[in-house]
Amino acid sequence: MNEAPAVPPDLATDSELRIMPEKLGTTDSVVVDDSQSKENEAPTDNEKAPKKLWLTLSLIRHGESQNNENPCEWFGTDDQLTKTGGQEAFTLGQAWANVPIDALYSSPLKRAHHTAIGLISSSTPPAQIILNNKLVEQAHGEYYERYCNNGALDAAYRERVGLCLFGKQDRGHRPREGGESLHDVAERAVVELMKALENHGVELKEGPGAEALSAMKETCKEGTLVEGIPHVVFVSHNSFLSELWEAMLSWNKEEHVWTRCHYGNAAW
């Protein structure tokens, strides 16, 4: 199981952001309707005041997919879970059977959506899955897809990552014809994080004590979640989740914080 490191205590010093990331998907699903977003409305006086919002956020990557199993082949951008991936999702659901989930958001791509279904397969009652197309994997552009379709996987890789300097990828590199840079993905991820905080975060007179926070770092199971703080889950993809994690570590810092963060299949 791939575990993400703990968030540094100064993460939210200036932004008034308060997050408690957890370690890291009914088969009913709904689709997010962004047409009702209030982001273009003028804020009221109360909305202008800074808020200290608390939220427990769990980040889960999809189970093994066809492209994961056979990296030398290409199954398209919306590949299915393999048999192993389906079992990983079901096993995850068994482990989370008694973990309360207040909101469950999933990428609509099959490998993530089916992992989310597996996640709630043993829960009673199951959480409703909210499909959100802003949680999809990094877009690699049409050139990348053409290379993959033609079996030119080395060229596809170069198109995707661009130039690397001292082992680090150019965060501004945007693959041709519709691709996203790492910076683009990070910005998209932060927007979804802020939406989750606004929609589900709660204000507390006092935050949870050190003992409760320490327990949450060990495992996500019944009894370790802090009572009164909503638990939100994102089921997504490695690049999206890694960029979200590094964006949180980089909060209020002048430079991006690089990590070795990598989510394994069905890891959280």
Automatic annotation (TrEMBL):
It comes from the Eukaryota. One of its GO terms (biological process) is regulation of pentose-phosphate shunt. Residues 1-49 are annotated as: Disordered. GO terms for cellular component: cytosol. Substrate binds at R61, H62, G63, E64, S65, Q66, N67, N68, R111. Residues 35-49 have a biased composition (Basic and acidic residues). It holds the Pfam family His_Phos_1. Keywords: Hydrolase. InterPro entries: His_Pase_superF_clade-1, His_PPase_superfam, Phosphoglycerate_Mutase. GO terms for molecular function: fructose-2,6-bisphosphate 2-phosphatase activity. CDD domains: HP. This is Phosphoglycerate mutase-like protein. It comes from Jaapia argillacea MUCL 33604.
